[in-house]
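HUMAN: Can I see a protein plus its fold?

ASSISTANT:
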Amino acid sequence: MHGPVLSCWLLVALCAATGAYCLVRVRGRSGEARRTAGGEALMGFGMAVMAVPAAVVAFPRWTWTVYTVVFGATAFAALWAARRGARHLHHLIGSLAMVYMALAMAPGSGHGGHTAAGTPLLTGVLLGYYVMYVLRSGVRLVPVPSAAGAPAGPSADPLPGLLPACRLVMGLAMVAMLITL
């Protein structure tokens, strides 16, 4: 990723921490919840690696091909899962955005020469989607008073309050990475 080195490393740390939290969520889950947490962990770690400053680490040429294949397969799985519910469309868009960024970062696309690569219209559409996602996720973090005396239900998450915050972090990270295209 291109940008201030400190900002890139902070983004790497946030995305890696988010991926680690999602990986912890995988344990003790089954079925759909396990696949969702695993997909979010993959996205977090993938974004962490993609955010490593280009000035510090030069990834081998094949890295972006691997990214394209992995996130292309993830996009296909999300498309297949979207048959069961629209909630999988966000994962489809995220996977396709990762494929798009990997293709833009591939040698010969202009990124290797430290110039912008990527289609401005598609970048703008993805930016618009993620800005709206971040705003919606941020509003959901605002506490809502519950009915007096209503007990909170048990949660299977190790730290249940972190899940919405982690999704917000991944959305913000996607906005930051798309801006650099």
